[in-house]
Amino acid sequence: xxxxxxxxxxxxxxxxxxxxxxxxxxxxxxxxxxxxxxxxxxxxxxxxxxxxxxxxxxxxxxxxxxxxxxxxxxxxxxxxxxxxxxxxxxxxxxxxxxxxxxxxxxxxxxxxxxxxxxxxxxxxxxxxxxxxxxxxxxxxxxxxxxx
Length: 147
Prior knowledge:
Blueprint: H1 2-19, E1 23-30, E2 44-51, E3 55-62, E4 68-74, E5 85-89, E6 97-100, H2 115-122, E7 127-132, E8 140-143
Antiparallel strand pairs: 1-2, 2-3, 3-6, 4-5, 4-7, 7-8
């Protein structure tokens, strides 16, 4: 009987390992986090990104100086603290709203994440950025980190 329980426990443990599971990362979005030039704004936001073979994204923002024009995950971060667009997020054209992974070409929701890219997320080399017409390079930004 003990052997059966041990076998069942081992199978359950191996199933969890085999299923993997995403890495959850969070970001607090502020103007002060913008690089290379911080932005003076009362806008703020947050994002949670779960990284596995795909990306799951949820978050919100409020108080932008102008309507959100676009949002992205950028990275990997270069020496100047900025990085290229990795994928596009979905945000409403407004001063506040939700952040989602979205769907379609170039979207974060349809992005296939490689093991190397997953490593970049886990190493803190990726960030979320929301852009506005007032601040086309980004009004609020947050570096993705493990909570």
